[in-house]
From TrEMBL:
SMART domains per UniProt: HhH1
GO molecular function, one term: four-way junction helicase activity
Any Pfam family hit: RuvA_N
One GO cellular component, as annotated: cytoplasm
Region annotation (Domain III) ranges: 145-194
Biological processes, Gene Ontology terms: DNA recombination; DNA repair
Stated name of the protein: Holliday junction branch migration complex subunit RuvA
Protein species of origin: Streptococcus cuniculipharyngis
Organism domain of life: Bacteria
NCBIfam families linked: ruvA (TIGR00084)
Gene transcribed to yield this protein: ruvA
Domain Helix-hairpin-helix DNA-binding motif class: 72-91, 107-126
Keyword hit for DNA repair: yes
Length: 194
């Protein structure tokens, strides 16, 4: 599995861009290829997600890890494939998307292509609370400088499937403490299971 690619942007089409590295040109499907127009023949770095199908191996590219995270969450929803997820990301309103999911705003969600009422309801059911709001991003830093153990614990709990809203309360409880990542995880799990 690929995490990212660094290389020279050599071509832009309506569906993908081509990034050349090591003498190979990789087709990378992106949400809006033309937003890269000013970067042709320049060095770029794209975060990647690879999809292997019976008839193809496809690379999907993202400018940021946050954009990639939104894509991965979207394709985890039944009824949303990579093409639809890219179409949603192309709107370039990830904050509005996340807010609509968390606030059960079906009207907003059905404005995206190929998203009907049933799929919008499934998005809300599967994704509500799974996104980390930018202002309370538990993966970035703790409020107390120099507490990487707590940051790692919160990231591990997110990876286990706990919601950001649940972890915000846990973080507040532990923010002024000093412990190991393992102990933070054990203590947090006990709190979450109550």
């Amino acid at each position: 599995m690929y995490d990212y690619i660094k290389g020279q942007l050599t071509k832009i089409t309506a569906k993908y861009i081509v990034v050349e590295t090591g003498g190979l040109g990789y087709m990378v499907h992106v949400a809006n290829p033309y937003r890269f127009s000013d970067q042709v023949n320049q060095a770029v770095q794209m975060y990647l997600h690879q999809v292997v199908r019976e008839d193809a191996q496809l690379l999907y590219g993202f400018q940021t890890e946050a954009e990639k995270e939104v894509f991965l969450n979207l394709i985890s929803v039944s009824g949303i494939g990579p093409t639809t997820a890219l179409a949603i990301i192309a709107a370039d309103d990830n904050e509005g998307l996340i807010r609509a999911i968390d606030e059960n705003n079906i009207t907003y969600l059905t404005k995206f292509p190929k998203i009907g009422k049933k799929t919008a309801q499934q998005m809300i059911l599967d994704l509500a609370g799974k996104f980390v709001p930018a202002e309370t991003d538990v993966k970035v830093t703790s409020q107390v400088a120099g507490n990487p153990a707590l940051d790692e614990a919160m990231e591990a709990l997110l990876a286990l499937g706990y919601k950001a809203s649940e972890l915000k309360k846990i973080r507040a409880f532990f923010d002024n403490t000093n412990d190991t990542t393992e102990n933070y995880i054990k203590s947090s799990l006990k709190m979450l299971m109550k």
